[in-house]
Every structure is written in C-alpha cells, then in structure tokens.
Amino acid sequence: MSDTEIAIVLGTRPEIIKLAPVIRACESQDVQYTVIHTGQHYSEELDAVFFEQLELPEPDYNLGVGSNSHGVQTAEMLVGIEEILQDEEPETVLVQGDTNSVLAGAIATSKLDMELGHVEAGLRSFDRDMPEEINRVVTDHAADYLFAPTVDSADLIREEGIPEDRIYVTGNTVVDAVEQHREFAQEKSAILDELELVPSEFVLVTAHRAENVDDEDRFEEILDGIARVADRFDVDAVYPIHPRAENRLDEFDISVPDSIRLVEPQDYLDFLNLESNARLILTDSGGVQEEACILGVPCVTMRDNTERPETIDVGANTLAGAETDEIVDSAIEMDGAVCDWTNPFGDGEAGEQIITEVEQSETPKELEMTPQ
Ligand code: UD1
Ligand code: UDP
C-alpha cells in the first residue's frame, strides 16, 4: 500500500496552470500527492516552461502519449493512467477541465476503487460537436466530487441530476493562479519592451480551437476580422500562436495580414503581462476569457457559444462568432466598455478549498460503506 492520498492527472497548458494552485495546496496542507502527466502537450513552450516558471515539481510520471487522433490518444492515456493508479493506489484522483487527458483520467479512475474529483465542473457550451463538451459531461457524471467554479455552473449539474452531496462551489483555480502571479508578472516580465509594445496600444489575440482553425474559410474570416480591428484601432494585433493553428496556417497556405504579429506561445508571466496591458483581447480560449475578466480587460470571444457565460453577464465579454464583420462590430462595442465589473470566479482560494474538501468530506461512496 502506498502513501499517496491524491493523484493529479494533467496533460495540457491550461491544466498545468490551473492545477498549480491545487498542487501548492497539497504542499501547504501536507497531503501526499503524485502528478501524472499524460504528455498530451510536450513542446517546451506548452509544457516544461510552465513547470519551471510556476516552480512546480517535475511530474512523477510522464506517459509521453503526444499527438494523435482522439481515439488513439485517449486510449493510450487510459492504459497508462490505469497502470499507475493501480500501483499508487491513491484515495482520490483529481482532473481539471475538459481535455482528452481529463476524459482518460476520469474513465480510468471510475473503473477502480478510488474517488474522482473534477476541478472546474459544471461548464456547458451545449455544443456537442466540441470534443471538450463531451469530455466535460462524461467527467462530471463519473465524478464523486464536482468542484464547480460558480453557483450557475453548480445549478447546471444539479439540473442534470447530479446529487447535491457531490457538488462543491469553490470558485475557479484560475483566480488563484492570476492572483499568485500577476504582481510578479508586472515586475519581472520584459515582454512589452521585447515586442516594442506600448500599454493599451495593442490588441492581444489567441485562436487555437479546432472548430476555428481546422476550417480554412472560418480561420481566414477570423484573421480578416482581427486585421480589420487592428487597422480600425490603428494598433498591432499580437498573436502568440498555438502549434495547432500554426500547422493549419502552413497546411492551408494562408498569408497572414500585416497588422497581425505572429509570435511564439508565451510563458505564463509574459502572457499575463500582455493580457493586463492589452487594449482589448480577442480569443477563442476558455482560460483567456476568464483571465481577461479577472484582469479587467474587455474581451471578444470568436466563437458561437461559451461555457463561461458569467463573463458576458458581468459585461466583460461578448460572443462574436467567426465572421469578419461581427468580429469588428464586437470589438468596437467592447472597446467602449466600462471595465468595473466584479470577477465572478471566486476569491482565489479555490485550490486550498478543493484539497480541504477532499481531505475532510465523506463522499457518497464512503457513506454507503458505513454500517447503519
Ligand atoms: C487541447 C485540448 C483543448 C485545449 C488545448 C489547450 C482536447 C480535445 N483539446 O487542444 O481543449 O483548449 O489543448 O491548449 O483535448 N502540438 C504540438 N505540440 C504540443 C502539443 C500539440 O505541436 O506540445 C500540435 C500537434 O500538431 C497536434 C496539435 O498541436 O496535433 C493539437 O494538439 P492536441 O493536444 O491534440 O490538441 P490541442 O489543439 O492542443
Ligand atoms: N497562455 C499562456 N501563453 C500563451 C497563451 C496562453 O501562458 O501564449 C495561458 C493563458 O494565460 C491561460 C491558458 O494558457 O491560462 C489558456 O490555455 P489555452 O488557451 O491553450 O486553452 P483553453 O483555456 O482554451 O483550454
């Protein structure tokens, strides 16, 4: 029998960032934990750079599954995670978000005699064409602890019949991450000088979602929209490009308009600094929608739906879809926004709260086994 209480499964950039506060909480509460990296992200700039910068311990395991079709990638993770969990015998396994790594971690755990905790539970885009939507629905329904970031996300899973005693509203660990790093980012990051940017005189862009960049026409419309926003505001659009998007630019042979500056994916401190100083953020990223809202920077989401409607409700974000004119109109609308909204994602204590709940609570499975 091993001493491991909690196994943390992660695999991609946003999971590393959003689980960093959970890992720190394990350290501060003296909980024995092990980190299993699936290897879904493996390029230095999507992976190792975050472990270094966030001062996280090296993962105890790295399955190195890399890129592949959804089925092969998820299956390889499932086999590898199961083997490790059988050796380590943790009481609880934590996954975060909605990637294939999360799905594999959830399925592997649900077949073993251990509890599953889903960090960032209850998000729904109601778009079943998105692989992430299926991943989060399956994971929520397999989980014993559902850590919902907001009251609204908790309501969504209640409506799906998830028992009340599995649901915990904790806030989103993205707030913990932003608060733990934003000042340091301002002090340490030299990215504005490096890219010769002036605060509030650039827009920041990210676009990597499969439904946007894997469709040539849609990706071109998005790029045209971004370029027109940059021209209209007379600023540069700075676009740290995700490898999936970069590969598609090559494959489709798209020439990027001059007013869009493609740069490498940024490390967390540099990216936080870019976000904080942008006039406006244009994105299709889940985490970036949240961070823009937390940092008080207006956001335009280049998607048809969002599983972060709280950002729209507070006035921090708007949905533009992927058409050029809509992107321009939405940017003009959000550029005039008064940025005095309240962050809806919690107080920055989510990581500590999650580990406290896991350590203290009697979950339904444990209650079932208690003799009456
Ligand atoms: C994945 C998640 C997505 C999340 C994103 C975070 C799924 C289904 N998708 O998308 O929800 O928003 O991570 O960034 O889990 N590649 C590299 N280096 C890497 C990783 C990937 O070059 O380290 C390239 C490969 O060409 C690969 C492509 O990016 O085929 C896509 O990678 P993959 O992990 O399949 O999906 P993401 O688009 O990163
Ligand atoms: N991010 C980063 N560098 C970049 C782009 C994004 O550090 O160049 C961070 C960003 O701060 C956020 C997370 O990556 O915390 C979002 O990840 P991504 O957009 O890849 O995935 P999603 O949130 O859409 O799943």
From TrEMBL:
Coiled coil: none annotated. Residues 27-356 form the UDP-N-acetylglucosamine 2-epimerase domain. SUPFAM superfamilies: UDP-Glycosyltransferase/glycogen phosphorylase. Gene3D superfamilies: Glycogen Phosphorylase B (3.40.50.2000). InterPro entries: UDP_GlcNAc_Epimerase_2_dom, WecB-like. CDD domains: GTB_UDP-GlcNAc_2-Epimerase. PANTHER family: UDP-N-ACETYLGLUCOSAMINE 2-EPIMERASE (PTHR43174). This is UDP-N-acetylglucosamine 2-epimerase (Non-hydrolysing).
